[in-house]
cysteine--tRNA ligase
Amino acid sequence: MDPSKQETNQKKASKPMAKKETQEFQFVVYNTMTQQKEVFKPKIPGKVRMYVCGVTAYDFSHLGHARAAVSFDVLYRYLKHLGYEVTYVRNFTDVDDKIIRRANETGEDPISLSDRYCKEYNIDMSDLQCLSPTHEPRVSDHMEQIKDMITQIINKDFGYVVDGDVFFAVDKFPNYGKLSGQKLENNRAGERVAVDSRKRNPSDFALWKAAKPGEPSWDSPWGPGRPGWHIECSAMSAHYLSFKFDIHGGGLDLIFPHHENEIAQSCAACEESDVSYWMHNGHVTNNNEKMSKSLGNFFTIRQITERYHPLALRYFLINAHYRSPLNYSVVQLEGASDAVFYIYQTLKDCQDALLQLQEEMPNDGKPARISPDAKECISKLRNEFQVKMSDDLSTSLILTGAFLEALKLVNNLLTMLKKKQQKQQRLLVIKSLKEIENEVTKVLDVLGLQPPWSYNEVLLQLKEKALTRAGLVEDDVIRLINERAEVRRNKDFLKSDQMRAHLQAKGIALMDVGTETIWRPCVPVQQDSEIVPSEGQKVPPKPESA
């Protein structure tokens, strides 16, 4: 995506809503720490400081990463919509065991390999309409901050050194487990907590790892080495946001041990350390099992967006509440693709009609008088949007109800414009269309579904993806349309219906409009349960338990 368009989107998303509207609803979020919904109140009025754990960059990012990014992008956009000045920090882990292993396999420098995948991740984020965070720090650029925090932890007797390694002494932190409710013995090996007989307690975790041959290392007071996983986020969040900030987010799997260890480290380094709200998004599952690289049951974002438009993927991701599990389903992806096509086709038709009727619209500066139906529609959409978004970002409930009713009314008004009307009635319809369109695009903008291209462009892109999934090119469809037209002229309507059904099974719908036949994407009548790979593309297998 063009960076200039990304910048334009950020400016759009930062436009605050009217003060009157912000006073009508209290924004409520679910706080993992208290396990309940709470009214959101930033530490500094008018300003929000937010840190979200990013990816460990050693491969293309998968659907689970997309869900986390989109979930917190919606939060970021909504906070800006409410008029807050938001400082959003999302890190990259570019120093890690997994990166080193992958670099050894490929013969690359670990930092260079990670840099490449950081860039690939940002391409995916741009495709998914995720606004760029205020800061995107990398571990390799913040070694001094990390070493300083480890020094503070040691000086306060929460850390100890053994042969160049530094461990956090969990016994010294009585509140360990307060976020997750987990006990110390659950901080086990296999979750980046290594078994090591030198530890005072098996649950102690590494703050600094002594250098090993063939691994990147940095000088430190304890000898050359590199940071443990958990310390990076404590150090970088404190550096950019201070020890006290408003929101810390990430995937559900990060609650323990990562976020639990972050709390211990940060409080050990600074007694006043405090995060007001801990927010976590649910897993993406495949056959009801968590999708992850380690299980080999994941799909990369690229694998999805080769066949489905990124905006369709975004719609799919926000069509469930961010905290609930989201089961991967091609049927749902097809439904999401069909839904966004309908949205953009309706808005294109509206935009085209308004452009043609521009000369009929007075430019007298007076408030637009609209129909009672349009007024009720706008009021209902605005109210429903505010109620649902303010209730812990209930995005899945926004894309139905009043939103769909607004699109339906747009189509009804467009139909009315095709009929003969008195001038005043016609003007009322035109103004009503314009006002409804404005309200619908405001909702899409906050949800990150307002495309950076023209509606015509995005519709063409959606059609191209549908052709890819069908294994066709547009010339194939045109040829079949022409063949079907000949069949219809011969009054062989049974064969005509069979030809239509054949294309519909592939996700291509034919529509007879007068003497012309046009096509659009549709949900296939019969759909496989998994993505069919492109030629030469390897798709990870389903788990054996499936």
